[in-house]
Structure formats: C-alpha cells, structure tokens
Amino acid sequence: xxxxxxxxLAADYSPAVGRLLGYGEPQRGSEWPDxxxxxxxxxxxxxxLTRLLTDxxxxxxxxxxxxxxxxxxxxxxxxxxxxxxxxxxxxxAAARCDEVGDDWFLAELPKVFTMIGPAALGALEAYVADTSxxxxxxxxxxxxxxxxxxxxxxxxxxxxxxxTKRLDVSSPNGYDANAxxxxxxVELGATGAATTIRHAYERGHVDESIFGTWQVIxxxxxxxxxxxxxxxxxxxxxxxxxxxxxxxxPTATGRPGGRAxxxxxxxxxxxxxxARSRARKKRRAARKDRARNxxxxxx
Length: 299
Description:
0% strand, 299 residues
C-alpha cells in the first residue's frame, strides 16, 4: 500500500516506478512486497529503476519523508525482475550509500544480487578486483558473490577462484575487505584457499576484530592452524609499506537528509550478522572521528 508519490520527483519516472516514491519506510524483518505484481513492473521499467537508484534528490530528501526510501524499493524491484543489466547501477548505488554513511546496502544488496544470480558475477568480480572503489562497496560485492555461490553450486568454483585470487594480493584491499574475503572462503568451504588466507593473516593484512584470528578461521575451515611464520599476527596493524589501505570514511554529519541507520542486528554467536554489526560500528566511529577533526580545524 502506498501514498500518492511526490509530484516533482514522480514526474521524472514512469507511472509504475514513480509509485515507489510513495512506498515509505519498509517494515523491518518483514517479507519484501511483491513490487512486480503490485506495481506492474516489467523489464521495460529497468532503465527508470536504475536511474532511481542514484538519484541525488533521494539522498538529500528529508529523513522523515517517504521518498528517502525509494531507491531501496528500486533495488528490491530490480532483484525481483532478475535484471542482470542493472548490476553496474546497483554497485554504483552501493558506493553512493557507502559515501554518505547509509549502511542499508550492506544487508540488502547481497540479497538482490542473489536473486539476479550468476548473470551478475561478471560485474561483481570486476568490482571486487578494482580497489579504486570504496572498501565497503567492495565488501558488499564480496558478500554478494558468496551468497550467489552458496545458492548456485555450478558457479561455486568460479567464485572461490576469484575470491582467493583477490585475497592473494591482500595489500591493496583494506583490512576489513580482507576479513570478509577470508570469511567468504570459509563459508564456501574453500579448504584449498587455506594457505592464501593464512598468508594474509601472517602479513598483518586482516582486521581480526571482525571474524577472529587465523586460529579461529582455521578451526572454522577445518584445517590445522600451525604456528604463524614471519611477522606476528596482529589485529589492525598501522599502515606501512605494502600494508592495505583503509582510508577514513566520509562523515554524513551536516548532510541535509538521508535514511535512518539500520537497527542493531539480531544477537547471536560469531555470526555474519554480528560481524556486520561490528563493522558498522567501526564505520560510524570513523565518521565521528572525521566530524570531530573537521570541527577542530574550524576553530
């Protein structure tokens, strides 16, 4: 059920896509609406849906408005349409959400890509390999590849190979991205990647606060951890020659609008949900640090 969409924005989209502007905040934990059936969306609407994903007016909309949620409904609809042609636009939306500190994309877009399936892998593989993209947008792509591989066994080998290759050159990825790469390989049962994972930990290129130490990872993977060789394994080492770079994330402080952050994830053990919660807290702390530093500079 939707309210009438805002006239100014809706006029720039097809009638069916324009109705998404009136959908408003989704109910947390509920099933996604049948956007295709309720709105009558078809493949012909995909170009408008992709435009809506990164419409700057959505990102600057008031936080209590209905239209601020429109791009989330757009990416869900794209998933239901299994529109592989929109994979690039979905990743652009991930990067824009990451830039403004909107963390909904981390929980939602892997589900969208899983609905699209193996047809999205080409775009995801290229995105993960390109370290010019923001770290958590690439984390989103990593998690999407993992979920596609779990759902479609025919491409599991391809995904394991691509993720292992990326972790093997761990230095440019960022500490957090390397942690998610290692965990994805564990989730896929990639025992053949154990040496690559171990080397990333030994080089100090993995943030151990997200999924644990190499010993924890080895236990989950079902391999012998052994004694680390070379440099001591340590959590979040300071940057140095050859170390991965995780630049501070820009703060959303002072932004005129935007969605409210996600509610805390469900409690449990060392699970994906808890790890994502830890990662979100780190990102928010980084944004606060940036905001404080900016205030000091103004004084």
